[in-house]
Design a protein that fits this description.
Arc Repressor Mutant, subunit A, alpha+beta, six-stranded antiparallel sheet, SH3 type barrels, 8 helices, globular, 8 strands, 229 residues, two-stranded antiparallel sheet, disordered C terminus
Length: 229
């Protein structure tokens, strides 16, 4: 079984790969470590058969992907538990889940999933992998790509930084929230978004991290989106 450090690297590689090719520099930034540290750790992962290198890029092997998905599952189940059962705010659970994910055994994972009625997504809208490693695909596009007059539902928040989540919570913008785009300023200006009876100007840098869908596809696995506001 990989160490906690190697697990964190696999999780980071998996998440970065969702956005495109994974380069060591991007991995170093995501992990908050130096380039030599990443190089040394990647060598360990490669020796363990968990990654492969192609033209400088980092790719998970089948075994690496299965391990990464198990880590992601533990992390997102832990976040769900912290929010739904313990009542912690959604902007405080990411770091706590990073600690818990390494301690959850398969037996505890299964018990948690059953206790929470098989949640489909984490509090931030990301799908929770099933025990067999399958994961539901979620559709959507960044809010910044919307046009004036569009109506959409928030699917997920791609950045789990506490400050961003705190800000979005203050606006009432959670996964499942319906929004209407009232206006889009030119030259990469802000979007004027209507949430309930209120209107807010959302900067492009924030809007690109809010994934929305005009017709959010139902999750393939049973779950709920309860979030403590």
């Amino acid at each position: 079984m990989p160490s906690a450090t190697l697990e964190e690297y696999l999780e980071a590689i998996y998440k970065l790969a969702e956005r495109g090719e994974v380069r060591p520099g991007a991995l170093a930034e995501a992990m908050g470590v130096s380039a030599p540290t990443v190089t040394a750790t990647l060598s360990r992962l490669k020796a363990a058969g968990l990654i492969q290198r192609r033209e400088g890029a980092v790719e998970l092997t089948l075994a690496g992907r299965q391990t990464a998905l198990d880590i992601v599952r533990r992390h997102r189940l832990a976040e769900r538990f912290l929010v739904d059962v313990l009542g912690l705010p959604w902007d405080e659970v990411h770091e706590e889940a990073c600690q818990l994910e390494h301690a959850l055994s398969p037996k505890v994972q299964e018990a948690l999933e059953s206790f929470m009625d098989n949640p489909a997504v984490c509090p931030h809208g990301h799908p929770i992998p099933a025990a067999d490693g399958t994961i539901a695909l979620t559709q959507g596009a960044p809010l910044c790509e919307s046009a004036a007059g569009d109506e959409a539902d928030i699917v997920r928040i791609d950045d789990e930084q506490g400050e961003l989540l705190t800000y979005l919570a203050s606006l009432g913008m959670f996964p499942g929230t319906s929004v209407r785009i009232c206006d889009v300023a030119p030259f990469k200006g802000p979007l004027l978004v209507e949430v309930g009876d209120a209107r807010y100007a959302i900067g492009r840098d924030v809007a690109e991290k809010i994934i929305v869908s005009s017709a959010a596809a139902p999750a393939k696995r049973k779950g709920r989106l309860g979030i403590r506001r």
